[in-house]
Give the backbone structure.
Amino acid sequence: MENMQVKLDAKDRKILSELDMGARQPFSMIAKKVKLSREVVNYRIKQLEKRGIIEGYYTVIDITKLGMIYCRVFLKYRQITKEKEKELMDYYRKSPPITWVALLQGRWDVGIIFTVKSIEEFEAAYDELLNNFGNYLQNPYISIAFKIYHFPNTYLYNTEERKTVVLGQKSETLPKIDDVDKALLNIISNNANESLINLSKKLSSTPKIISYRLKRLVKEKVILAFRAKINTALFGYDHHKVYLNLQKMSKTDTAKIISYLENQPNVIYITKPMGTFNLEFEIMIKGSNKLFEFMKEFLYHFSDIVTNYETILYYSEPMLHYLSSLKQE
């Protein structure tokens, strides 16, 4: 049952479904799809933002196309105080390599992503974190994400349509990215719906040129999607991450699991990592009983492949960027 504070009709849900993976669509285009006027769509979106259902807009950037890697660190806090936790959060926000932070419940208390150009750069950033806060951190789990599959929140929209984008797809050559592209990516990373006029002013360019650059970055799959950040907790959903250990690590077996998860409307991410676990996925679900039921059914399908799994609850995601600082050279 939905949170009583949240009331959405079919039109609002359709608008959300359009913004989920297409946040730069003109309101006129969304209006045509939902059969409302542009003015009504504009009003409804403003209300969704005002009510906190839409928390912002971000751009999914395939950082591997920029020659960068995702290094992930999951940590348990030790003897942490409220003041020290706030100090840590301030540090995360100010540290250029850190682009994502989630607060967790379970084996770890915090998950951090370092977006870096090399293992050496990650080592330096991680050492700096430990030098500043090592007394308060323990039980690190470090992993690199090879591929991340992104899915829309289809469980909210009563639709089976599933647009998939994959971060980390193989590319023969890296796209040529100049300083203007880098500046543009920096701006839209956390402002996916920024207007062409505002972007052109900030970049001392023209809307036509900025539009061309955005289209090129999309075509070259540097930009994978423009997304709305939806506060799914208002609908009563919990965000769980599931870590899988597989006894069979063949491409065929992994592909079977990925194919199965792709067709589950509540699954929003699948990660192919390097680390202790062989595969991970994230699921939005209402309550631990529903999670248990999902995993029971999942294991019926893959009991010959999956040897073990662990789950962890994401209760807050205070930082979500794909680029906090793409330095110009």
